Amino acid sequence: MKLEPHIAWRYLFSKKGHNAINIVSGISAAAVAVVTAAMVCVLSVMNGFGALVEQMFSEFDAPILVVPAQAPTLRTDAPEIMALSGIDGIQAVSAQLEQTALVRYKDHQLPARILGVDSLFTATAHIDSIITDGFYCVHDGAFERAVLGRGLAAQIGINAHFTGALHLYAPERTGRVNMLRPDLSLRHEYAFIAGTFAVNQIEYDDQLMLVSLPMAQRLFGYDPHTASALRIQPAHLTSDIKRQISDTLGPAYRVMDRYEQQADFFRILRIEKLLTALLLVFILIIAGFNIIGSLYMLIIDKRDDIRILSHMGADQSVIRRIFLYEGWLISVLGAAIGLVAGLLICLGQQHFGWLQLGNGSEYIISSYPVLVQWTDLAVVAVIVVGLGWIAAYFPSRKIQI
Predict the structure, then answer these.
(1) 91, 124, 184, 313: which could form a disulfide with 231 (CB 3.0–4.6 Å)?
(2) pLDDT at 56 over 60
(3) Which of 327, 123, 309 is nearest to 231 (CA)?
(4) What DSSP element (H or E) covers 394?
């Protein structure tokens, strides 16, 4: 071991001339450890919530969604769309048509997002796993069926066991509105409820209704080759297959994975995580003043040692590095303890669920979700050790011999 780190290590654990210096040094390391553990725990909880919501979206969102870049609809019989079948690794291509219509059930009516899906929809979404009542079916061979978001069904006042018909109305896309008989300017379809689903996201549960694609095309006045998007299920979702799809379709289409489909949500999540980390870094900076104070006290306590080292030939830079290492070792010790403590707390929460969310009946999950990412641990370690080095730099620069 080099001279400076060796002496700094001895100073860290040796008995000081004044007991207060040992206490302040211990408090400094403890403060760094507590903040480090807090950073690990908070970031891991935010990762857990992000993974939880990502899993919810993945039950419904397509692995790859293709939408037209400019127009509201696309043609499923277009040559570039037909060419998708020639790409290796694509298991299913499902067409969907989504627009807004008025839904009425007896005396209840409200606007809803109508999503028309074809028979391959179940190959691109795990719809059966999110059915909360009834079953998934959009056409039973004789009648049109509908699967509603749980919140939308509650607003209409219906559940999967009701036998009455849901009436859907949408304005004619072409032609002029008859002001004397505006009802003649509306297209009308009806369907019987088959089930309800829950993604636990308002934009799905409170607004969405699944119907068959042919029914949606009739309701909104489109021909059988018109859709608003394509849902693609690849054998393995890789950047290569996404690039192949983009190259095949050209610039007239946008190809989005699940993260891009929910870009706003994941952007907000990243911002929240960053702001939380910055707040904890600010607290860590305050804790760094403890390191500065303990170093100043140690420098005063070790004046005789500094004089002896100087007489033995140690120049000013060597002595400064000793105390620089001393302050840095305090932060390293605190960071190591904090990382281990934070990791143990997170692993314990994962396995035992110590921190509960209410009584478990009013939340999706019973305890706080935790997901430890090693990149977070590395970033936290670098930040803590880096700030510790900066905190130790200023007192060491004040040493004069």
Answers:
(1) 124
(2) yes
(3) 123
(4) helix 374-397
